[in-house]
Amino acid sequence: MYLEQRRNSILDYLDQHDSLSVAWLATAFSVSKETIRSDLAALATQGMIQRCHGGAMVIRRNLQAKLISETGGNFEVLLQRLEGQRQRSAPRDSTRTKGRVCILGSFNVDIVAKVARFPKGGESLLALGSTLGPGGKGANQAMAASRAGARVHFVSKVGTDQFSQFAFDHLSASDIHSFRLYQSEVEPTGNAIIYVSQQDGENMIAIYSGANKTLTDGEVAEMTHELAASDVLLVQLENNFSATLNAMKLATTLGVRVIMNPAPFSADALACLQYVDVLTPNETEASLLSGVEVNDLDSAKEAALAIVRQGAKRVIITMSSRGALILENGQFQHIAAFPALSVDTTGAGDAFNGAFAAALANGQTIAQAATYAAAFASLAVEREGASNMPDHPQVVARLAQR
Ligand code: RIB
To answer: Where are the catalytic residues (predicted)?
Structure first.
């Protein structure tokens, strides 16, 4: 078969199957995996397909572009169109083995200084070590959900600087099933300056969001296909709120459950509770959202009730060594923390949220998923680096220890 013919056939196959592995295509066309990889690279360069972990998937850009252009760029009109289509859409495929999680969120470059203790204002302190690595709550949560066994589609935005290639390489080499990385011509890739104290692994973070704050309506609209095929949408607050809000509206219209991790704190979280199925603040965020200072289980219960009174459907307050508190249907449930030898708490919340989303997408109840996520996060704090996540078998082993 000629090269062009094979590439067209690959596109036909992808159209029928949505996504396929390199190994499957190599067998189907009786060629080597190398040949298929070069075919996929060429098709990806032409914008015909999107590479994903171990294979490729079609880009339904034309379909989406048509839908989006018909709406004149008006997001509300797009939602109405989709609402009209929803009744006609096919039921979910019950044979799939992995839950599907769509994540809209940030990518940051994390510049980390290990310090014996946090510096005081005006003080210069020699660091014990320094690293530069991938981070951003969105990317970390996408890593966590993938390692927890979900099929993840991640949408993010970086600059055109050298860190954009760093982001692309990191995501390509990860377990994340597929991703779409937009580039801002104006803002740089987001970054975070992080201190990790060697006393207890505690962290302090200053974030410059940069390109993360420049997601457009059109870019969010381009998630439609992947979001429609997902069980759960997971968002945080490191992007421009208009994009996060539109993604949540889109998910609600498509009947996809929404988890919002309201981090870093912004009062915007209170303006969109109608679109959120599960809100997952930590103690600091819960205090700011509720006006109740959270410092133990009783104050967490008070804060959760105050957040529900403001319109939240379900709240999970994550409290590190104090575990997690669930408030659902007026009932509290406390998930005890798993003992851990904490070396770096950066990304602990991301570990919890990504694992929680994966477990929920896999069909677990809120309490089961929160227990799984607590075990996952306890393993994450035993590793250095915000994006350095454990895997599912390790979590199973930790759960078995309880
Ligand atoms: O939650 C940890 C993350 O917060 C870091 O990776 C940093 O980039 C900030 O987004």
So the answer is: 350
260 lines ligand 1 (CB under 6 A): no
User: How buried is 37 (Cβ within 10 angstroms: 0-12 exposed, 13-18 middle, 19+ buried)?
Assistant: middle
Q: Establish if 94 belongs to a structural domain.
A: no
Task: Please give the mean pLDDT across all residues of the chain.
Answer: 91
pLDDT digits (tens, 9 = 90+) for 113-161: 999 999 999 999 999 999 999 999 999 999 999 999 999 999 999 999 9
The encoded tokens of residue 22 equal 């390199």
pLDDT at residue 83, as a whole number: 80
List the domain range (segments joined by +) for residue 42: 3-89
What is the model's pTM?
A: 0.84
Please report whether residue 95 resides in a domain: no
Residue nearest to atom 2 of ligand 1 (CA): 347
Catalytic residue among 39, 175, 277, 350: 350
231 is in an annotated binding site: no
Token pair belonging to 158: 């970086």
Query: Is 344 annotated as contributing to ligand binding?
Result: yes
Predicted pLDDT of residue 87: 47
Position with higher pLDDT, 266 vs 44: 266
Question: Can 18 be counted among the known catalytic residues?
Answer: no
Sign of the dihedral through C-alpha 159, 164, 168, 174:
negative
- Domain endpoint, select from 89, 111, 127: 89
